[in-house]
Specification:
Four Helix Bundle (Hemerythrin (Met), subunit A); mainly alpha
């Protein structure tokens, strides 16, 4: 199995785990767990984009998440480049965050927007595969 296929399987599993955790009325501990799952799933998402772009000969193995997201948008892997960038910024913010209000706002974006963007990416990859 090639690296892209292996990472895609990991991404699919992580996304399912993230979606399964998005329950109604979660407690604080459950929200913290979702934020951790989100960070992990986001990392896999942009790395899958990178692997696919490499596989297609569009890029070499170098590229920051922002560069990869921009290229993925340019090559129609994703439809909403602006919100993918916002997702990246929120993911980065979680890594250095100690503000409960900000983290809860990011959690709401995960529930209402980011999960859909990630599911759309998986669907796109499945259609390309």
């Amino acid at each position: 199995m090639k690296r892209w296929e292996e990472r895609m399987q990991d991404y699919q599993n992580a996304l399912k785990s993230l979606a399964d955790g998005l329950i109604e009325n979660p407690n604080e501990l459950e929200i913290d767990g979702i934020l951790q799952r989100f960070e992990f799933t986001f990392e896999l998402s942009w790395k899958c984009m990178k692997d696919y772009l490499e596989k297609e000969g569009i890029i070499s193995s170098i590229g920051s998440p922002r560069e990869i997201i921009n290229l993925a948008f340019k090559h129609n892997l994703i439809n909403d480049g602006e919100n993918w960038i916002n997702m990246m910024l929120d993911r980065n913010q979680l890594s250095h965050l100690y503000d409960n209000n900000v983290s809860r706002n990011i959690y709401l974006k995960i529930r209402t927007l980011y999960i859909k963007l990630m599911e759309d990416l998986l669907e796109k990859f499945n259609n390309l595969n």
